[in-house]
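Write out the 3D structure for:
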Amino acid sequence: MEEPQLLSTGKVFFSVVIEKYYSKEMLVKEHTLLRIVSGEMKLIMADSSYVLHGGDTILFPRNTLAMITKSPLNGEPYKAASVYFPPEVLRKYYASHPVTPAQEQEIPRIRVLDQHPLLDSLFGSMLPYFTMSEELPADIVTGKVEEAISILRTIDKTADVILSHFEEPGKIDLADFMEKNYMFNMPMEKFSYLTGRSLTTFKRDFKRSFNTTPQKWLTQKRLELAHHQIFEQKRRPSDVYFEVGFENLSHFSFAFKKQFGYNPSNTMLRH
């Protein structure tokens, strides 16, 4: 699996080129606007999935959690450009452009935006940045980010729901979150952060909800999902292990045999 060629400028604008298949888990740290130039990107989330191609533009809210696959298509590499929205820029922008969000309005997972000339213009104007060797001036960075915000507010009336939200995650239902997201292989600190808890409180609440430790529960849930996909959906172990939360095939195979008493590659059980 090839590592992407990543270029950045101003710590806000990023470009990536991937010549071969690339897959990893992704936790988006800041609100991000991404334009796919060529190739294909697949997103697998807790309750939805997307297949996106050249010309598609996506707005990711911060703390989006997904399995992401990027690959060439029709002889062209995967290429994409993105804009990160730093919280300090958003706070300054919304201080002078106040909005009144609807009470208890849920933050969307992601927004796949309709094609629009303003988006084409925005990303077209960014391309020269990635050929520069020097850092972009701060005022240009801020101006371009504010332009992106203005464009999003113009073409998508729900954009403010995402962009004006830059607080830390609040305390949410731990059991519900874990049942939906156990297949993502994150440090326990990330699980606790995304549920709005300290690590100590997370472990205490987890024990109260599931009567076991997080690591034991995660391993069992991931193995049960893998077993279903291999023996019921007839998928290969090599195609499954990463998707269910294991880092490598050998560790997965060892844990699987320890749990079920037979190897995941046992074809006799798949007929």
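The first strand starts at residue 5 and ends at 9.
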